[in-house]
């Protein structure tokens, strides 16, 4: 059994390989949603893709320009909104029990780093 929970200021991320249905967990200080393996894998993949898009957009925008980028699978929708160097991340589950949450710009860098550490996608 591999069970990991990572957390920091404004974010939580967890993985339990022995869980029957909901093996992933995403959340902040005030909310949390358990995710299926497929949902968690999509979340990690799409969050990483959005982070890369925001990095690439740094070269294209002036410092004061904000942007919004979306990524979606059949299971969930993610949006990065803010400046390429500091943006919020918003999540909406699209199937089953449904859920919604967001992370502040201050929490996103550590959340993205934790996604890389868990290596589940």
How are the SSEs placed, and which strands pair?
Blueprint: E1 3-8, E2 11-16, E3 24-27, E4 32-35, H1 37-57, E5 67-72, E6 76-83, E7 86-93, E8 99-103, H2 108-118
Antiparallel strand pairs: 1-2, 2-3, 3-4, 5-6, 6-7, 7-8
Top keywords for this entry?
alpha+beta; 2 helices; 121 residues; Transcriptional Co-activator pc4, Chain A; four-stranded antiparallel beta sheet
* Envelope shape: globular
CATH architecture: Roll
The overall pLDDT average reads 92
Indicate the structural class.
alpha+beta
The beta-strand count equals: 8
CATH class: Mainly Beta
CATH fold name: Transcriptional Co-activator pc4, Chain A
Q: Helicity range of the residues?
A: 25-40%
The CATH superfamily label reads Transcriptional Coactivator Pc4, Chain A
The separation of the N and C termini measures: 17 Å
As for the number of domains, it is 1
What would you report as the Rg, rounded to the nearest angstrom? 14 Å
The arrangement of helices and strands along the chain is EEEEHEEEEH
The low-confidence runs, each spanning 5 or more residues with pLDDT under 50, are none
Q: Describe the biggest sheet?
A: 4 strands, antiparallel
Q: In order across it, which strands form the biggest sheet?
A: 1-2-3-4
Number of helices: 2
% residues in beta strands? 35-45%
Note down, in words, how this protein is organized.
The protein has 121 residues and is an alpha+beta fold. Helices cover 26% and strands 39% of the residues. The strands form two sheets. A four-stranded antiparallel beta sheet has the order 1-2-3-4. The chain has a four-stranded antiparallel beta sheet with strand order 5-6-7-8, with helices on one face. The longest helix is centred in the middle third of the chain and has 21 residues, at 37-57. It starts with a strand and ends with a helix.
